[in-house]
């Protein structure tokens, strides 16, 4: 493990520190700041020549700044003669722009993949991509982890009965099925019609949810409008207690206000793939750590061992 190095930018140093505790190594010191005109300044303060370096940096809000920090860190490490550089990006920003669904729009998820690759990255480690096909946007090895194990372990401790896992849209069926299988629960889908990129109009439910305990699962929560609309229609259709399990808690705009006002949401369970600011902390929000999962993946990649068992 003396050749294993973990560095981080300013996006989520707490997660990087927890990963290092799991690996029982020290976080490599590097300076990440800004010059007077606002340009990002990076300096690796320790020798990384010939080392296996893992850069922990979710591209979370402020997305552009987090992304530029990641690219500059990778460039600095490459020029410092690191043997291999792995970008550990628990939350992959711009993932929702993964296809050309309208005329004259970019496929930004592919552009970001190109930027990360050209910067000098040898491989990528990420989690719960918004769309699985983003893996194919990279021409370098990519390991795609899932938070389902961490979240299911929490819900198993609650010992909920008459449980149904609900996907808030048709696109999330595969994820919902994985949760339902592990929790030995029923499966339902909220059929919703999108009226704009930010707003949706829920229609009806496919599946039996009456007098059942509900877990709504999704990969990310942004403004919360989609989740709250799904919860409201579930309650109207006779659901009992409603919880939500979502990997990436972006929680922007009026998300916290919506969660606070939603009387029918019992609990929102997210992971620490994105740091939760003090202003976003709420009694209904429970944060679970993915440091152990990422740490184990990093250890296996470093030791050239199989990571596939962590994909389940």
How is this structure best described in words?
The chain has 312 residues and is of the alpha/beta class. The protein has two domains: 4-145 and 291-310, Rossmann fold (3-Layer(aba) Sandwich), CATH 3.40.50.2020; 148-288, 3-Layer(aba) Sandwich (Rossmann fold), CATH 3.40.50. It has eight helices and 14 strands. The chain has helices spanning 13-23, 63-79, 108-118, 148-158, 173-183, 225-236, 255-261, 291-302, and strands spanning 4-8, 30-34, 40-44, 52-56, 84-89, 123-127, 142-145, 163-167, 186-194, 200-206, 213-221, 242-249, 265-271, 285-288. The strands form three sheets. Strands 10-9-8-11-12-13-14 form a seven-stranded mixed beta sheet, sandwiched between helices. A five-stranded parallel beta sheet has the order 1-4-5-6-7, with helices on both faces. Helix 1 crosses helix 8 (291-302) and helix 4 (148-158) packs across helix 5. The longest helix is centred in the first third of the chain and has 17 residues, at 63-79. 41% of the residues are buried. The mean pLDDT is 94.
């Amino acid at each position: 493990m003396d050749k294993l190095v973990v560095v981080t930018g300013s996006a989520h140093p707490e997660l990087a520190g927890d990963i290092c505790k799991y690996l029982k190594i020290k976080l490599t010191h590097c300076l990440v700041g800004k010059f007077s005109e606002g340009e990002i300044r990076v300096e690796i303060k320790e020798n990384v020549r010939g080392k296996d370096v893992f850069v922990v940096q979710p591209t979370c809000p402020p997305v552009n700044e987090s992304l530029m920090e990641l690219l500059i860190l990778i460039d600095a490490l490459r020029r410092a003669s690191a043997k291999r550089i792995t970008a550990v990006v628990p939350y992959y920003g711009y993932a929702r722009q993964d296809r050309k669904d309208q005329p004259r729009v970019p496929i930004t998820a592919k552009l970001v993949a190109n930027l990360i690759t050209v910067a000098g990255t040898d491989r990528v480690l990420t989690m719960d991509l918004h769309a699985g096909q983003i893996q194919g946007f990279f021409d370098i090895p990519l390991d795609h982890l899932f938070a389902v194990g961490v979240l299911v372990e929490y819900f198993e401790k609650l010992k909920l009965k008459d449980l149904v896992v609900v996907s808030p849209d048709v696109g999330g069926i595969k994820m919902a099925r994985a949760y339902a299988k592990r929790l030995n629960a029923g499966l339902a889908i909220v059929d919703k019609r999108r009226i704009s990129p930010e707003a949706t109009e829920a229609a009806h439910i496919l599946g039996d949810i009456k007098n059942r305990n509900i877990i709504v699962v999704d990969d990310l929560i942004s403004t919360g409008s989609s989740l709250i609309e799904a919860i409201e229609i579930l309650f109207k259709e006779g659901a009992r207690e409603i919880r939500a399990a979502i990997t990436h808690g972006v929680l922007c705009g009026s998300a916290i206000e919506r969660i606070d006002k939603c009387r029918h949401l019992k609990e929102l369970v997210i992971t620490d793939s994105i740091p939760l600011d003090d202003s976003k902390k709420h009694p209904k929000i429970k944060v679970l750590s993915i440091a152990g999962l990422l740490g184990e993946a990093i250890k296996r990649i470093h030791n050239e061992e199989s990571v596939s068992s962590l994909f389940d």
